[in-house]
Amino acid sequence: MKKILHIISSPKGEASMSIKLGNTVIDKIKTEYPGSTVKVRDLTKNPFPHLEEATLAAFYTPAENHTPENREAVKHSDEAIAEIMDADIIVIGAPLWNFGVPSVLKAWIDHIARVGHTFKYTEAGPEGLIKDKVVYIAMASGGIYTSGAMQGYDYATPYLKGLFSFLGVTDVNIFRVEGSAYPGQAEIALQRGLESIVL
After folding, report:
1. Who has the most CB within 10 Å: 11, 149, 169, 199?
2. Cα angle at 5 between 151 and 72, to 5 degrees?
């Protein structure tokens, strides 16, 4: 039995390729680990606010010195980090938009990448504090980025892998639906992506 956290960042609902891919990843996890539970965090329905001065000030104020205003400013971050720490497996739906990730996903990332909570600085350098987790990225793109002329334009993959590595997650896996915008290729691209899922 595993605790699965599903992060959704596509606003397209049932038409979303990244959601379909993520749901299939979760189905395979549940088949392998019967009784697993899923918590869904849909960032398009409940987006995280962009970081503001009050939030950053609260991040760098020791918890014992927090005012009610500080606690209000960090509540989204606290909730997101608690969800991550409670999960065994994190499935992140990440449509590749304009060569990167949607802004709602970036806003969530800004709340979880928090010094003293998900990473710290030591004499030996930074140390990630998110341990013993598996991350699956369900990425969808209209173009093809794993080969050909667009290959160098996928900035989302190295960003997400680098981020989670920095935070301490060493087991990061990416599954893709790509090329769905090409004429007549949407269903083929989806099927190819679903069939590529091997846990």
Report:
1. 169
2. 105
Q: 41-62 as b/e, with b when 16 or more CB fall inside 10 Å?
A: bbbbeebbeeeeeebeebbeee
User: What's the rounded Cα separation, in Å, for the pair 1 and 86?
Assistant: 13
- Any idea what the Cα angle at residue 18 is, between residues 13 and 24, rounded to 5°? 100
Whole-model pTM over 0.90: yes
Altogether, the residues listed in the chain come to a count of: 199
Distances (CA, A) of 156 to 1, 48, 98, 178: 30, 19, 10, 13
| Average pLDDT rounded to a whole number, residues 48-67 | 94
3-195 CATH fold = Rossmann fold (3.40.50)
Encoded tokens for 148: 């050909």
- Listed by start position, the domains of the chain span 3-195
In angstroms, the Cα distances linking 188 to 17, 32, 82, 119, 123 are 12, 26, 38, 40, 51
Query: In sequence order, what are the beta bridge partners of 94?
Result: 139
- pLDDT tens-digit profile of 130-182? 999 999 999 999 999 999 999 999 999 999 999 999 999 999 999 999 999 99
Which residues share a beta bridge with 134? 89, 171
